[in-house]
From TrEMBL:
GO terms for biological process: asparagine biosynthetic process. Residues 231-484 form the Asparagine synthetase domain. Residues 49-155 form the Glutamine amidotransferase type-2 domain. PANTHER family: ASPARAGINE SYNTHETASE, ASPARAGINE SYNTHETASE (GLUTAMINE-HYDROLYZING). Signal peptide: none annotated. SUPFAM superfamilies: Adenine nucleotide alpha hydrolases-like, N-terminal nucleophile aminohydrolases (Ntn hydrolases). GO terms for molecular function: asparagine synthase (glutamine-hydrolyzing) activity. InterPro entries: Asn_synthase, ASN_synthetase/amidase, GATase_2_dom, Ntn_hydrolases_N, Rossmann-like_a/b/a_fold. Residues 615-643 are annotated as: Disordered. It comes from Halogranum rubrum. This is Asparagine synthase (Glutamine-hydrolysing).
Length: 643
């Protein structure tokens, strides 16, 4: 996979098993540095690699870039990077010469930087605003500071034993993510988002500077003003991004987020849609591709597609999402063959819709539960925890240690003055945690594995994470996020023909105002269920982009087969229970919905780190010991201990 890894310290080394973890395709550009006390290996997309490292400060500073820098915001204007596709490192070097390390506060893009200051004998790691390209770190037995963009690969470094921090593992199993910078791997954490972490090579001490935090500060302006700013900004973003000499690929759904990209991007694209058959959503996506003049590619999953993802995807998991959320990984060759760069509409709902909010709801009979566009207040940390726990399945029948999700979350989310600290990350207020905790950093997202697997295939961008749109999103009042649809309105402004096409879920063309769209969602659901004759070919298939996971578990055998294939892990790791896992599966087959905790378990069982934890336990002949609740700033502690 593309990414970086390395080690700092007197005995820093680059064993092949370690460096292989950040190599994905043969055509990637590889860079290796093995200096005294500083070792680094990077694998970069050839389109973006350029000449690395770039040098600054008369050669005393070397800069590597994983990912892509789009430009620099001085505070008064945004200056697009214009020095070629692979010029990110050179661009950063020029800014360093002009501004020093403070230049990173104005960087715009999806990147991680490694900056080696030879004169000062330091190495600095820089993450973008939401850590789209993560870097994980730990300490080896000899004291070396070891880092990697793939958390599981750190266990392949000599002198690092793999053990689990059980409360964080429990959090992953329940929520398919661990918030903040924490991971379930003992001693391994993620570098914080929007930060510079500087390591002194003399003593390997660290210093952290966080240059940005999201802050929700709504400004009361007319919706029309926000619409104008939104459409102008997204057009500006694409005008800077696009290159007539490149072929672009778009992940095209039947919704509106990807359709806005079609409307704003002034060139044809290869439109990829992932489905089990030519479903209702696939037909809408094909229609949008045709209207826009894009070549439509139906990436049709076969009956064993999810089972194959279960074999492969857990290897690159960073404990944020399930194996099947590497949705497009099985079609990598098709995607690589048809485009140079990938674009997707991910995170539009997080930033410009009501996704982060707890909402009031009502039952509408056979149609299901209807989420109303009315915000339910979250006034305390306990309210926030209750909201996160709404789908929890407790107790976990396959987990032998006694935990409650509430106690794990409560021990990791606390007030610190006027701020909130959640799992090692600071938020300016409870409201900021509610608004941004799901993706600041990106690892807090329940399907971060989706976007991070896209990054492996081709250079990948989503416009909604451009700094200019992140800044705009923090100003939009709640009433517009909940009861207006900025994305639909922008499509209507930019391309009326695309706005004439219905949304696949609501059945309502995007051109109609929010009340019509909201009502249509309910009525269309009733019509589809009781009037329309459009039953999918199998009960586990749907007209949405992804299968019905609950039914897929009952229809396919890969869950039970995996439990038996990994029985040695379920029986050999003292915190897991084989019979409990079978009971959980059989309960689900009998009608109980255990899908969430089963998919988390399946992903865990096929992770290399889990096998390594089992091997470490066997080697040391350890038995289960007392585990308490993990807390910020430390590892597992006995219950009742204080910070």
């Amino acid at each position: 996979m593309v990414g970086v890894c390395g080690a700092l310290g007197d005995h820093a080394a680059l064993p092949p098993a370690f460096t292989d973890s950040v190599t994905h395709r043969d055509e990637e550009e590889r860079v290796t540095v093995d200096d005294d006390g500083f070792s680094l290996h990077g694998s970069f997309h050839s389109l973006l690699a350029g000449d690395q490292p770039a040098t600054a400060a008369d050669g005393d500073v070397r800069i590597w870039v994983w990912g892509d820098v789009y430009g620099y915001d001085s505070g008064s204007e945004h200056v697009a990077r214009s020095n070629g596709r692979g010029g990110s490192a050179a661009f950063c070097a020029r800014l360093y010469d002009a501004l020093g390390m403070e230049f990173v506060a104005g960087l715009n893009g999806g990147y991680a930087l490694v900056v080696h200051d030879v004169a000062e004998d330091t190495v600095s790691f820089v993450t973008d605003r939401i850590a789209t390209r993560p870097i994980f770190y730990t300490r080896a037995d000899d004291g070396a500071f070891v880092f990697s963009s793939a958390s599981q690969s750190l266990a392949a470094y000599p002198g690092i034993d793999t053990e689990f921090v059980l409360p964080y593992l429990y959090e992953y199993l329940e929520l398919r993510r661990v918030f903040g910078v924490k991971t379930p791997l003992d001693g391994i954490e993620e570098l914080p988002p929007a930060s510079v972490v500087t390591v002194d090579l003399d003593d390997l001490s660290t210093e952290t500077w966080t240059y940005w935090t999201p802050s929700y500060e709504p400004v009361d302006k007319p919706f029309s003003t926000y619409l104008e700013e939104f459409t102008e900004t997204i057009q500006e973003v694409f005008a800077e991004w696009t290159d007539d000499d490149l072929d672009y690929g778009l992940l095209l759904s039947g919704g509106s987020d990807s359709r806005l990209i079609q409307a704003a991007m002034d060139q044809p694209m290869a439109a990829f849609h992932n489905a089990d058959f030519m479903s209702r959503e696939a037909k809408i996506a094909r229609r949008a591709a045709t209207v826009n003049g894009d070549e439509f590619h139906l990436l049709e999953r076969d009956e064993d597609y999810d089972a194959r993802l279960l074999e492969d995807a857990p290897k690159i998991s960073n404990f944020s999402g399930w194996f099947d959320q590497a949705y497009f990984s099985g079609f990598e060759d098709d995607i690589v063959e048809n485009c140079d760069m990938l674009v997707a509409g991910l995170y539009a709902d997080m930033l410009f819709g009501g996704h982060p909010f707890a909402k009031h709801g009502i039952s509408v009979g056979d149609v299901g539960n209807l989420s109303l566009p009315l915000r339910r207040s979250i006034d305390s940390i306990d309210d926030y925890i209750d909201f996160q726990m709404k789908d929890a399945v407790e107790p976990l029948s396959y987990f032998t240690e006694s935990f409650s999700l509430q106690s794990v979350l409560r021990s990791n989310i606390r007030h610190q003055g006027d701020e909130i600290v959640s799992h090692g990350v600071r938020y300016g207020s409870l409201q900021d945690l509610v608004m941004y905790g799901d993706f600041y950093p990106m690892g807090g997202d329940t399907d971060a594995i989706f976007s991070r697997t896209l990054m492996q295939m081709r250079p990948y961008r989503t416009p909604f994470l451009d700094n200019r749109l992140l800044d705009l999103a923090q100003q939009i009042p709640v009433r517009y996020l909940l009861r207006r649809n900025l994305v639909n309105a922008a499509v209507t402004e930019l391309d009326p023909a695309l706005a004439e096409i219905p949304h696949a879920r609501t059945g309502v063309p995007l051109k109609y105002p929010f009340p019509v769209d909201f009502l249509g969602d309910t009525l269309y659901g009733f019509w589809r269920k009781h009037v329309a004759d459009e039953s999918p070919p199998e009960p586990h298939l749907t007209h949405a982009p992804w299968p019905n996971r609950q039914e897929l578990i009952r229809a396919k055998t890969f869950t039970e087969e995996t439990l038996y294939a990994q029985r040695h892990l379920l029986e050999g790791l003292p915190f897991l229970d084989f019979q409990g896992a079978l009971d959980c599966y059989h309960e689900h087959c009998d009608g109980v919905n255990n899908q969430t905790v089963l998919y988390s378990l399946l992903t865990l069982l096929n992770m290399p780190a889990t096998q390594r934890a089992h091997d470490t336990l066997e080697r040391s002949s350890l038995t289960s010991s007392e585990h308490g609740v993990a807390v910020d700033g430390g590892h597992s502690r006995p219950s009742g201990s204080s910070e």
